[in-house]
């Protein structure tokens, strides 16, 4: 039970990294807490940035998304004062998203990795990473049969998300920047075709509502939600009534209703661990930084960081050149903070301040002005497009 690189987590970050390292002939293994079926079906992201697609293409990992994904370049903002559309695919750098469900991407990455002979252990939970300051870090695990085990490595890649073992094993010197945006969403997957040919962002006095296409039969919706209320507190009727009202369907036409097949409460929080490297422990994806999902950046950052980390580890193992590993954290943090800033901007655009005092009134007036500027200023629209689809 040893490998040169032990990768924790089989999400977009861990599986991209595993594919790239294995293709370069580097001895690696992926340890994944969940079982195979869970990994292949966990529905989360859906909007892949152009750069993410380029990375996957570069490494021969984009066949599935080219076959089944579809390009997307329009969003629509709805307010009490009407609506406007931005064809962001023709603004900024002229880049589009590819809509491709995260579980399909993960399934493709997993299939490719296994077909190439990559090693993975499902139902193997990393408990802690030890001796990260030395040349032989170890990972203590609980094996699929419940027994404790230990893996030895040269490097450990922490791709096991925000609540994983990598984060729990960070030395005290690691900085954790955290922000709670004070906004909660109810994330929904509805068994219904998309109702708009655009991403829909609705700003209503009752709160935010969002619409995002996934497939021909499944649509993701978000509803701003009372913090602390359990996700199952609202009936489907109440959810659809709220979506209809907040999406201003009386003016813009009805939504396709359908069974709600998944719901989750999402507190909009952002965090960043700094630096991303602690000796022989390297973080990537949500383990390194969680951008609040308002800007759809998490999976895209995960793939970008996985490529940068793979390149750095390949330099280290093939040429004993550690310069890219030394630069890894700094390079990622530049992208991470850009994504964090834009997610923060989106949250402030989409949500009214909670209070009814003078301060809240001031912030609400600024927010309305921001929306108006986005509606009318080509320069502002170019900036939006560049940040919205860029990474
Ligand atoms: P994960 O996908 O979380 O994978 C981590 C893996 O590690 C999991 O398989 C987990 O089981 C495993 N693991 C955890 N702990 C352990 C352990 N101790 N030992 C072993 N394995 C472990 N991002 C976008 O870019 N675009 C979007 O449109 C978008 N929409 C989203 C919508 C929702 C509702 C949510 C919740 C997120 C969304 N995101 C989006 C964010 C995106 O899903 C994540 O950023 C992305 O999954 C991060 O990938 P990852 O590989 O770092 O982590």
Automatic annotation (TrEMBL):
Note the InterPro entries from the entry: FAD-bd, FAD/NAD-bd_sf, PheA/TfdB_FAD_monoxygenase
GO molecular function list: FAD binding; monooxygenase activity
Gene3D superfamilies (alphabetical): D-Amino Acid Oxidase, subunit A, domain 2, FAD/NAD(P)-binding domain
Q: Where does the FAD-binding domain lie? A: 3-342
**Which keywords label this protein?**
Monooxygenase, Oxidoreductase
Matching Pfam families: FAD_binding_3
Q: List the SUPFAM superfamilies.
A: FAD-linked reductases, C-terminal domain, FAD/NAD(P)-binding domain
* Name the UniProt record assigns to this protein: 4-hydroxybenzoate 3-monooxygenase
Organism placement in taxonomy: Bacteria, Bacillati, Actinomycetota, Actinomycetes, Kitasatosporales
């Amino acid at each position: 039970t040893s490998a040169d690189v032990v990768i924790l987590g089989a999400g977009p970050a861990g599986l991209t990294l595993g594919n790239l390292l294995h293709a370069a002939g580097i001895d690696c293994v992926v340890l994944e807490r969940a079982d195979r079926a869970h990994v292949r079906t966990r529905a989360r992201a859906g909007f892949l940035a152009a750069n993410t697609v380029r990375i996957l293409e570069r490494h021969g990992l984009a066949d599935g998304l080219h076959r089944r994904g579809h390009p997307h370049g329009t969003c629509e903002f709805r307010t009490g004062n009407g609506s406007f559309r931005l064809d962001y695919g023709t603004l900024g750098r002229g880049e589009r998203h590819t809509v491709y469900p995260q579980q399909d991407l993960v399934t493709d990455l997993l299939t490719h990795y296994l077909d190439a002979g990559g090693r993975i252990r499902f139902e193997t939970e990393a408990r802690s990473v030890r001796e990260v300051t030395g040349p032989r870090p170890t990972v203590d695990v609980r094996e699929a049969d419940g027994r404790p085990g230990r893996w030895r490595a040269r490097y450990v890649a922490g791709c096991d998300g925000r609540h994983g073992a990598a984060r729990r094993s960070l030395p005290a010197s690691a900085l954790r920047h955290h922000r709670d945006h004070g906004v909660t969403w109810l994330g929904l997957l509805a068994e219904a075709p998309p109702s708009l040919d655009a991403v829909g962002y609705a700003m209503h006095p009752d709160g935010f509502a969002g619409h995002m296409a996934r497939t021909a039969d499944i649509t993701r919706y978000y509803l701003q939600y009372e913090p602390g209320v359990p996700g199952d507190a609202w009936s489907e009727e109440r959810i659809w009534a709220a979506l209809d009202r907040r999406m201003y369907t009386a003016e813009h036409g009805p939504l396709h209703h359908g069974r709600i097949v998944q719901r989750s409460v999402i507190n909009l929080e952002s965090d960043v661990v700094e630096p991303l490297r602690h000796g022989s422990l390297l973080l990537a994806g949500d383990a390194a930084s969680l951008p609040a999902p308002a800007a759809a950046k998490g999976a895209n950052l995960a793939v970008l960081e996985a490529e940068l980390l793979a390149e750095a580890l390949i330099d280290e193992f093939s040429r004993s050149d550690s310069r890219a590993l030394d630069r890894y954290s700094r390079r990622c943090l530049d992208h991470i903070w850009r994504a964090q800033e834009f997610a923060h901007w989106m949250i402030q655009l989409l949500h009214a301040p909670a209070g009814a005092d003078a301060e809240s009134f001031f912030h609400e007036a600024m927010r309305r002005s921001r929306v108006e500027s986005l509606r009318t200023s080509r320069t502002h629209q170019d900036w939006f497009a560049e940040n919205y689809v860029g990474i």
